[in-house]
Amino acid sequence: MKKQCLTILISAGLLTAFPTNEALKAMKDSSYLDIQNSTLFTKTLAANNILDFSGMVYNRFDHKIIAFGGGHATAQFPTNVAEFDFSTLKWSFMINIDSIASCKNLYNAQTALFDSAGQKLGGVRYNGKIYAGSRHTYDGLEMAADSNIMISAQAQEFSGCQVDKYDSLFQGGSGLFTLDPTKKEWSLIHKAGLATSYCYSAVNPAEPDLIYLGSAGMGGFNAVNWKTGEKITKRSVSFSAGSDMSMTYCPERKSFLAFPYSSLYEYSIATNTWTKLSPLGTPPNCYSLNVVYDSLNKVFCCFYDSSFYYYSPSANTWYNLPKKRYLSRLFHHHVYDPVNNVHVMVGAGWNTYAFKFSDTPGLFPGTGGFSGVEKRVHTGSLPILSVNPNPSATSTTLFYSGFGYEPLKLTITTINGKNVFDKTITPNKGNSYIWKPASTNGNSAAGVYIARLTNGKLTKTAKIMISR
Fold it and tell me: CATH number of the domain at 383-466, please?
C-alpha cells in the first residue's frame, strides 16, 4: 500500500491538508516535467482564446488552478472557465457556456449589464445567470485572501480586431466580477468604475475585503472592497506601469512588488508610498509575464527568454538559471503550487508544464529569505562585509551584500569598544560606503577599528586597520 504524503497550508488562519502528487513531488531540483500536451479543448470555442493575454491563478483553498479570459487572435470573448486538478493533472471546464450558446447569441443588447446610472458593466446575463467575459485579463485575476473566491478586476475590454461582431454596449464595461468555484457561478457588484483596463492587481492578507489595482501608464492606484464596491484612493504611481505589468504580494516585507518591464518598484501598504528599487544582477523583461512568489525559497520568479529568473528580496538581486527550456506564449499562465513546491505553466495549445526550482531553501544564492541567509553566514557567502584598502593611511571603502535593500546601521568602534562613528546608510547600486576616520592636524588616528553593519535582522563585522 502506497503512503500518501500530505502538505498542510495555512490560509486565512485555517489549516488545510492536501495530498501531494507523486510525480510532481518526485521532481529533481531545476527540472521540467511535461504534464499535458492537450487536445481536450481543440474543438471548442475557447481552444485558442483562453490563452491569449488571459490569466491563471492558484486557488489555495481548493488546491486547484483557475484559468479565464483571452480571445486576442480570434476576436472571440469566451465566458468559459477552466480548472486544473492536481490529483489527476488534468484540465476541465468549470463553466462551459460557450458549448451552450455562441458568442453571437451571448453578446447582444438584451444580455448587456448596466449599473443603476446606466453605465456599462461588461459580461452578460444569460438564462438568468451572470457571466463575465473579457478579451484580455492581464494581471487582473486574484484569489481573495480569505476564501476560494476569484476576483476579476480587469475591465471587460471588448476592443481590438473585428469588434464590429459585438455590440458597443460591451466595450469598456468596468464592473468587478467574482467567481465562486464551489457554486460554479459568477457574481457582480452593480457599480461601474471599479475594474480597470490593462489591470495589475494584488491582495493583502491583512485586508481580506480589499483588492489593490492600477492601470497602464502613470496614474491612479486604488483599493476596492470587492464585497461592497467601496473604492479607496491610494498613492498614484509616478512611473510608467506599461500596458501589462505584474504586481505580487511580498509576505516578508508586507508590501507589493511591481515589475514594469525590467524595472522594480515597491508599494508600502503601511505608508502608502512607492519606492524604486535598484537590484543587482540582470533583470528579465517582465512585460506580459506573471511574476509569482515561491514561498519555500522566498523569491519572486518568472520565465523569460526560455530561462527561469528569480528575484531575491534578501539579496536585492536578480538571478537566472543557465538551463533553458522553450515555453511558448506563457503570458500570465504561470502559478506556484506550494503543496508540491512546483511552478506550473501553460503555453499555446494548452501544453502544460511543471518546473521544480529547489526543495532546499538556501541551496541557490539568494534563496531562503533572511532566515536562509542567517543559516549560511558561517560559510562566508552571505551576508558579506569587506574592506579595501586595508590597511589604509587615510580612508577605506566598506563593501557589503546580502543585507536586502532596507536602511543599514553602520557603527565603528575602537578595538577597546569606544564608539567613534554612527550612521544610517541606504544601500546603493555599488553596495559600498567610504569611511574617513577623524583626523588631527591632517593625520588619521592610527589603530585597529571594528566596523559593524546591521539591518536589524542580519549583522556582520569587519576589522579596519588605519596606519600613518
Answer: 2.60.40.3080
